[in-house]
Amino acid sequence: MPPHPETWLRVTEAGLYCEPGGFFVDPTRPVDRAIITHGHSDHARPGHAHVLATPETLAIMRERMGEDRAGTTQQALGYGEALTVNGVRVWLRPAGHVLGSAQVCLEWQGSRAVVSGDYKRRHDPTCPPFEPERCDVFVTEATFALPVFRHPPAAQEIGRLLASLALFPDRTHVIGCYALGKAQRLIALLREAGWDAPIPIHGALQRLCTLYETLGVPLGPLVPATVATKDKLAGTIVLAPPSAIADRWARRLNDPVPCLASGWMRVRQRAKQGGVELPMVISDHADWPELLETCTEVEASEVWITHGREEALIHALGQQGIRGRALHLVGRGEEDAE
Amino acid sequence: MSVPAFAELLERLLFTPGRNGKVALIRQWFATQPDPDRGIGLAALAGELNFRTAKPALLRELIATRTDPVLFAMSYDYVGDLAETIALLWPEDARSNAPPPGLAEVVRTLDGAGRGEVPAIIAAWLDALDSGARLALIKLVTGGLRVGASARLAKVALAEWAGQEVGEIEEVWHGVRPPYLPLFAWLEGKGPRPDPAGQPIFRPLMLAHPLEAKDFEALHAPDWRAEWKWDGIRVQLTAGPGGRRLWSRSGEDISGSFPEIIAAMDFHAVADGELLVVRDGEVAPFADLQQRLNRKTVTAKMLKEFPAAVRLYDLLFEGEDDLRPLPFDARRARLEAWHERARPPLTSLSPLIGFGSMQELAAIRDGARAAAIEGLMLKRGDSPYTPGRVKGPWWKWKRDPLTLDCVLMYAQRGHGKRSSFYSDFTFGVWRGDELVPVGKAYSGYTDEELVWLDKWIRDHTTARFGPVREVERHLVLEVAFDAAQRSTRHKSGYALRFPRIARIRRDKPAAEADRVEAVEAIVAGSLAG
């Protein structure tokens, strides 16, 4: 009988630790060996000695934290390639969250655990879709684990944005979005909806957009929003970090309509905070149906929940005969809690 | 697609702070929606939609049959609003392919349904809608629609869309009913102007401009009549065979809040005046009148404690006789003669103030200190009653504002264009060694001053509470206001009326700002005056 994953995959102060392999997954403090699911800062931290991740995630880490802090040695592992670390078989599967995002699949003496990181099951032109991997223990996030969170199709939300632009053709529509993942996905979704115009972007988004293009994700013409004059920004769609859209930076825009793209926009009270005029429910996290569907699809008898609203998910999984367990990992959900 | 389209309109109105943005959204509704749904939407915006609604408890029972109680409780706890929780939680696995209901269909169906049928009807609609539309539907059928727009704004949007004067719409408004088919037909040039005959209708008011120094110099005393400017609310009294109505200045029907006035309107005329609380012939402060506003039901106690009365100053119709084209002097004569004859209870005439020269009138204005008087109204003796704000024939000449030197305590970000600026200021005066808030202002400063204040606040923040910043107690603001009154709203025990920032007193140390005793003296002085 294969050993239960809780005998070889444990929660420590630094995060999830694979004991026989001698490595951590997404550790929250500098460690000797780390496997990183994706580049968001609450998963990818600087200062590890040896880092294993997809080539895209490694590139993102180098871009965000600098060559010297992104791991003393970096080892790239493509999706579907496998290697064995001290007898633990390790391979990566796409998580569909952001470019390079991966589920870390681990197998030890016939017992299999999948650490999914953050993931979604929706269409995203900027990264390969989530691939379910059958396992004994599935480690999941629970950011949107309440049945009220059902994200509408992203194309529908883009449609609302374009309808607003048709109604207010002179006003700058400025979308608040995170620099890694959400920004590039929005740009790609806009291109799919036929928006070919140059997209002015805030300086904080520039480097990662350039990196995405280098890594083979076409984004079309992007221009800096910072140097443009007010009349040139009339009728444009501008992307900026959420903190900038209703603050001093936004004064350069032409009578702006502040928009915010996030799964939290589903709930009005959340959306009403921060002066948003056009809330757009677009998320890079699994919504409630996606969470349940994924937990069922991977056929795990146990689901471990790293962070988020674990209570509701444990309750719902229990009704399906799946045991849920809250890991209470600290330091998660800071950046990409959206 | 009309419930979903209406849902999108409500959503955008809720999140759009600016007036022009809201008007554009409502205009688009009129331009794109078919009859009769656009009229039902207009009625909903104008607060005139009446139909048989469902109780929130019914929705609660419906959702209980479709969801797990634990998950419902967790969701409700998180979302906080029952209608929104149900809308978001309503399961979509039974989503039907039925077309979404139209607004008019919802109203018609519920009006005609038997009590036992209502739950199944609403459930079938919810199955046909997405979450945003479900929320709009739930708010609609439970009568809990809160629209981020006023009836007035809806009429302004209607006027702009149709290229009409909003006054024209007001004239016919009370002769039409949802879904307003004759109104839309007329506005689109496909039908005659709706005839409000018989119905009590609101006649748009003639408004005055504030008098400025340069205008004052051009005034020739014999041409002008003066009245006190009362600190109440402007009303129009309409009574005749078709019924009796009390309208606010924007044409809102406020009859329900003032049954004693309606009961006293035993005449056939349209009169213009000021609604006040009057005790033993003395006009009470505006705060007393506020107790009576926006109430659906009026208790005997309210009627006794806050007795309302009207000071009349113009007569628009006597019987069917339209007096509006007549000059002010002729209307005034008709008003006095009519009032003498009809003697309606709870009304009195606002007296004309005699004066020999403009200088004498200025002295009268400066001497007016009673809280119920805001200043003077100047009306040309030959002015006809012209709806709207025409510059020249009528002036409002408020007395000079009172001022206090206050210390800035808190600042909050504004909305819309001002969302990046700290533009709402809470300020206080000294009570002993302690600063106590006395008011909040978000106007009066220039654009340059706002930029300066915003920077000062960012540089002198001591604490943050969400959108609010607490600042160092250093900056003195000269605050202008029209009156001070006792109030429990602020810790000082006083509130200021129409406070605005008159000047930034960078020169003045905070310790030398005014004390609460100064506010007390103002209140005491105005009560005595």
Automatic annotation (TrEMBL), chain A:
It comes from the Bacteria. It holds the Pfam family Lactamase_B. Residues 29-130 form the Metallo-beta-lactamase domain. InterPro entries: MBL (IPR050698), Metallo-B-lactamas (IPR001279), RibonucZ/Hydroxyglut_hydro (IPR036866), Xnuc_lig_assoc (IPR026360). One of its GO terms (molecular function) is RNA endonuclease activity. This is Putative mRNA 3-end processing factor. It comes from Roseococcus suduntuyensis. The lineage of its organism: Bacteria, Pseudomonadati, Pseudomonadota, Alphaproteobacteria, Acetobacterales.
UniProtKB/TrEMBL annotation, chain B:
GO terms for biological process: cell division; DNA recombination; DNA repair. Keywords: Cell cycle, Cell division, DNA damage, DNA recombination, DNA repair, Ligase, Magnesium, Metal-binding. It catalyses: ATP + (deoxyribonucleotide)n-3'-hydroxyl + 5'-phospho-(deoxyribonucleotide)m = (deoxyribonucleotide)n+m + AMP + diphosphate. One of its GO terms (molecular function) is DNA ligase (ATP) activity. Coiled coil: none annotated. Its EC number is 6.5.1.1. This is DNA ligase (ATP). The lineage of its organism: Bacteria, Pseudomonadati, Pseudomonadota, Alphaproteobacteria, Acetobacterales.
